[in-house]
Amino acid sequence: MAGKPKLHYTKGRGKMESIRWLLAAAGVEFEEEFIETKEDLEKLRNDGSLLFQQVPMVEIDGMKMVQTRAILSYIAAKYNLYGKDLKERAWIDMYVEGTTDLMGMIMYLPFQPADTKEKNLALIIERATTRYFPVYEK
């Protein structure tokens, strides 16, 4: 498994997108193997590649890594993008967790009942513009 990292995910952004961004920021080329069918996912599950039976999964440095946060932390540390000291890492972690909170709200919107979508979208927009975006802009 040496060489380019290989990303395993569906043909979509979702939880793999932040991993793609971080690899791009590090200047690392990667390959993608898309999960297109239920059988593709079952193959990964059955061969023991998925620790918790779910993706994203990244093959890197001889490992089959799962869990988005663990993958991001590994890549950031490997390519010196995880701060110069403990305080910088804490700041990075706070931004990451804030982004995770916002993305969680956004990602679940399509799966909410139709009668609550409009109200929940308004809440997401309000929180994004008053809580999260000002922090990133600052």
From TrEMBL:
It comes from the Eukaryota. InterPro entries: Glutathione-S-Trfase_C-like, Glutathione-S-Trfase_C_sf, Glutathione_S-Trfase, Glutathione_S-Trfase_N, GST_alpha, GST_superfamily, Thioredoxin-like_sf. The gene is Gsta2. Its EC number is 2.5.1.18. It holds the Pfam family GST_N. This is glutathione transferase. Residues 85-138 form the GST C-terminal domain. Keywords: Transferase. Residues 3-83 form the GST N-terminal domain. One of its GO terms (biological process) is glutathione metabolic process.
